[in-house]
Specification:
The structure is a single chain. The chain is mainly α. It is 66% helix and 4% strand. Strands 1-2 form a two-stranded antiparallel sheet. β1 and β2 form a beta hairpin. α6 packs across α7 and α6 packs across α8. The radius of gyration is 21 Å and the shape is globular.
Length: 239
């Protein structure tokens, strides 16, 4: 209450020196941030799983001096804050949040260096196609799964604003395009990593194009999944 009173227009600014004023705004910002975040009691395990994995992988990447993936940890942290801020309005289903956690875990695991100096992301799981395309890689599986989950997130955001009944063909196209948009944003982030850091594991043009292809696969699978689960039960918080 004191913070609100002291930062309100009615409070005489002449009574505050710049340093206490800055402190008051800092405290207010912290309080506002804390009270704006929402987590359902059934989602606390998911939150602590995120926190634990971020701490573990941050420690690993610092030890390996892997600055690229330290950056990705920061992005996952921003994603977590975005979910916490929007959760009270969207009410993300638990299975969607678990999906985000699984994606983030295996995404960060992909950045861990192996004994040969390469990161796990470079592993070829099943050699379907040789160079220059190198299919099927760990990286491509994570892209497909990650944007499967991203499409479910976008549907969760959109669902409260849908008219009932609604055409799922139209909705499916919209959420698939939204998922692909997030995939394009991911490629922009990877591009900035190559600009800012002297060496990365991003790869060249073929890698970027294949990332987008597997993003597309993930979004289409998510659209079919949502079409199969036509009722609101797919977004039940208890599921």
């Amino acid at each position: 209450r004191e913070v609100w009173e002291e930062t309100s227009p009615e409070f005489s600014m002449r009574k505050l020196s710049p340093i206490p004023l800055a402190k008051n705004y800092f405290v207010y910002t912290i309080l506002y941030t804390y009270t704006s975040m929402y987590i359902h009691p059934s989602q606390k395990k998911i939150l602590w799983s995120f926190v634990a994995s971020l701490l573990v992988f941050t420690t690993i990447f610092i030890a390996q001096q892997n600055f690229e993936f330290i950056g990705y940890v920061a992005i996952v942290l921003l994603l977590l804050f975005a979910v916490l801020f929007s959760n009270k309005f969207v009410r993300y289903p638990n299975f969607v949040l678990w999906g985000l956690f699984v994606w983030s875990f295996f995404h960060m695991l992909g950045g861990v260096e192996m004994a040969d100096g390469n990161v796990i992301y470079t592993l070829i799981l099943i050699p379907f196609v040789a160079e220059p395309y190198l299919i099927l890689k760990y990286d491509q599986i994570i892209h497909a799964f990650g944007f499967f989950v991203a499409t479910l997130v976008m549907y969760s955001v959109l669902y409260p604003h849908l008219k009932k009944p609604s055409s799922f063909l139209g909705v499916g196209i919209v959420v698939a395009m939204a998922g692909l948009g997030l995939g394009a944003l991911n490629e922009i982030i990877e591009f900035f990593m190559t600009v800012l850091l002297p060496s990365t594991n991003v790869g060249g043009y073929e890698n970027t194009a294949l990332d987008l292809v597997f993003n597309f696969v993930g979004t289409i699978l998510a659209a079919f999944f949502l079409a199969h689960k036509k009722t609101h039960s797919v977004l039940d918080l208890k599921n």
